[in-house]
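Sequence in, structure out. Go.
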Amino acid sequence: MIAQSKPRNSRFSFLLAGLLLLTLPSSLLGFAAPSSKDVPKSITIKGKEFSLENIKNPFSSDPETIKEGGEIYIKNCFLCHGDLLDGKGLFGESFIPAPASFVQNNSVIFKTPAYAFWRIMKGGKGLPERFKPWNSAMPAWEEVLSQEEVWKTILYIYKTVKERRQPIPKKQNPSIKQGKNIYLKKCAFCHGEKGKGDGPSKDYTFPHARNLTKGHIKIRSTSFGKIPTDKDLFDAISNGMKGTTMPGWGHLSKSDRQSLVLYIKTLSKKFKKFEKRGKKHKIITVPEPPPVTQERLKRGKKSFMINCSGCHGVKGRGDGVTTARIVDYSSNAIWPRNLSEPWNFRRGAARKDIFLTLRTGLSTTAMPKFSPRIFKDQEIWDIVDFVLTLGTPEQPKVKPVILAKKANVDLLDDFNASFWKETEAAYIPLGGQVLEKPKSYFPTVRNLTVRAAYNEKEIAFKIHWDDPSYDPALKEKNIVTASPTPPLPEHLKGAGKEEPIEPVIPDFPDALALQFNLNNEAIKPYFLNGDSSHPVNLWKWTSSDNTTQEWNATGLINWTLQKDQSQTVKAKVNYQFGRYFLIVKRKLKVDDKIMDVQFDAGKSLSMAFNVWDGYQGETGAKKSISSWFELQLAK
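Output:
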């Protein structure tokens, strides 16, 4: 249950929004969602007609079938719909509309078996014309999952949701036996039946689910490398781990969670040895925080640059020079936390939370503890308060509209031009392209921010996104400002000189594409680069040659480069301390009225984004993607 996530290839592709439209409210879709009455009499699967009239699930609710269905769900569905089937998986906030929650009152368990089977097999594209949600990240699974696998998955969802909706039983005494029963039903899918972190989800999560036999968890009140207390384990179970596939299990009764603690402790010999030797936990306490002052922030910045920037970078975006040593996917290592996004901090972003993280470190990671023998409380608080200046306290809200502000000045390709200050920033969530192969299961780039402005002649977009690894080709063009090697801390001076870190040369460039709906047709193209009947126009910037090209696409892999005379988009890029900045602009009107998007003041059109991280091996269809957003050119 105590897991983080990152990609691995597998036979099964993920069910990104698997049953996305089974329960979506009409307010999110903009029209009435289909009901059981809309189920067609028959569908065609792999060239054969398949009747849906009076269809029933051929499997019974025996434990082995439920388990098989759960494994299929974990391999295909939980990244979006979540381990708890509540629509709050790791990609739960990446797309609009959001994945369905199966635990709400109008969920799939109240619809017919034919409905669920239909929606999984045919996906968003298979809906009748009046229902088509071209923003939906719901794929059709008829070519991936067998009918038997689909029915077992449906059975698992029905059974699990019904159990979840049962009233919490009366208080029971916690027991190892009860903990084992719950663990095998709820936790073994990720952590494995023996707790070794080798459950069915292993190939789908990076870092892998916690190996509980080691007796370590990241979030503890004890020091680095020490076993956690019962309360630490209880809190980890109840709260989960932000930004990972590990949900909070607070909906379980208190006695069930206490039972889980008792059972989890039997999976590692360390707890028994600890008790046998009569040891006691040394709890790290957090003193009351002092007032924040400018002097503290100044000291905190200095200390951060010496002790933290080597990994986290100058701006805290994970681009420190030592990441080349510690980021090794083969050993289950991860990038340092992006400190500019405190809403993703595992323990939390309160001052006391960060203080405790620094004091305890994060066991099994490269994040060390800040020992009181070296760092006094005052210095820890100084660092804490400076860290909180690196980002906004809350995640920006996602709005459906990108507002282009009219400017009565020339749209200079200057990142600090005054007219940008008058524009509204739009926060755009991104998810991995996992609908078609090749896929990007867990992209590095999970969001971007865009501003838009236009005048009588042209339109410009200013975009930034965080990427801890830049394309070295850009450094040759003098447009990179990287985090420098920090000075050696006092307590490490005198140690042997470190070997220089060789730069990593990625196999592919970084890139970003702006995607537009041509002519703003009544029916939107499919958000994943259009379709054969509805093409899209793309402006793609690429880091290796620092150029921008215009393309047209009728699908994920069906891209066509426009002729030279149509290449009119211009761009300027800058990379500073883990963040790309890009300005892209073009004339409002161009000659090709069919294959190029045209912009009109006072009108709207649909816009989306694609991002590639070359360091992660992303190229072609393997990328981050966004849903459609509405671009409005305000008069």
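Check: The domain at 176-276 is CATH 1.10.760.10 (Cytochrome Bc1 Complex; Chain D, domain 2). Residues 11 and 75 are 9 Å apart (CA to CA).
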